[in-house]
Specification:
Structural class: alpha/beta
CATH topology of the largest domain: Rossmann fold
CATH architecture of the largest domain: 3-Layer(aba) Sandwich
Oligomer: single chain
Number of helices: 12
Length: 292
């Protein structure tokens, strides 16, 4: 039996959660946002509204489109409120398997039996997640890219027991929200994270050994290979702590090539996490990176 995605519960209201919620609401999907921290879901919906107003000011969307998008967004005060009647749950919470199992386990109890259980994880096993949730057939990876309203790709990760029907619904959802999907098997790092972090990792090692400055390493990839953003600037945008967690996971699962550079670990320990902390490989002022 086929179920359209008409109502989505976004669990986690950080940068990715906000972006995903904006994307789904913009295409006509009723979207509820929940965060375990009190008041954060409401703040996230407010932040999305402010972003929509900026887009109106730049002529990117109409005032009517912004208004209708805001009207489809609701901050939920409880997880049960967010997931009641939802056709799809998407978690965008920290990269901890135990945390994801705990949160999605509770979420799935509140949602209808047909609801897809989607994870925005960039590296953790969908097979393990589905098995621990005891809902392997309807658990799937929906890996968005930052910022979700702009980035075209949606990486759909199929676990060992993810059903064909779930994959087809995920593909239909990708088309519904205007994304181009790729389907990958459940392997550590999937396709994008595995390739992306290894490039970033080598860029950090080059910086460590004094090959070139962060700015020039990034410029080499942007101008020489037409990457829209260099690997160090991208690491700042994603978050150095997020990249470190992915590398540690891939090092454990795959091998030595994913050993995190000492520079990255030192910067994370120092609280230099990139854009969100104001400093990483660049200094960020009003959202704009400046060379250190």
């Amino acid at each position: 039996m086929s179920f359209d995605i008409r109502t989505v519960a976004v669990v986690g209201s950080g940068t990715m959660g906000q972006g995903i919620a904006q994307v789904t609401a913009a295409v006509g999907v009723t979207t509820r946002v929940f965060d375990a921290a009190q008041g954060r879901a409401a703040a996230a919906v407010g932040a999305i509204g402010a972003q929509l107003e900026k887009l109106v000011g730049k002529g990117k969307i109409t005032a009517d489109a912004a208004k209708s998008t805001r009207e489809r967004l609701t901050p939920a005060t409880t997880l049960a409120e967010a997931c009641e009647g939802a056709d799809l749950i998407i978690e965008a919470i920290p990269e901890s398997m135990d945390l994801k199992v705990s949160v999605l386990g509770e979420a799935s109890k509140c949602a209808p039996a047909h609801a897809l259980i989607g994870s925005n994880t960039s590296s953790l096993s969908i097979t393990e997640l589905g098995a621990r949730l005891r809902a392997a057939d309807r658990t799937i990876g929906l890996h968005f890219f930052n910022p979700p309203p702009v980035m075209e790709l949606l990486e759909i990760v199929r676990g060992l027991a993810t059903s064909d029907a779930t994959v087809e619904r995920a593909l239909a959802f990708a088309r519904q929200i205007g994304k181009t999907p790729i389907i990958v098997r459940d392997t550590p790092g999937f396709a994008t994270s595995r390739l992306g972090v290894i490039l970033g990792c080598e860029a950090m090692r080059m910086l460590e050994s004094g090959v070139a400055s962060a700015t020039d390493i990034d410029r080499a990839m942007e101008l020489g290979y037409r990457h829209p953003m260099g690997p160090l600037k991208l690491t700042d945008l994603v978050g150095l702590d997020v990249r470190l967690a992915i590398l540690d996971h891939l090092y454990k699962e795959v091998g030595e090539q994913f050993r995190a550079p000492a520079l990255l670990r030192t910067m994370v320990r120092a609280g230099k996490l990139g854009k969100k902390s104001g400093e990483g490989f660049y200094v960020w002022k009003e959202g704009v990176p400046q060379p250190r």
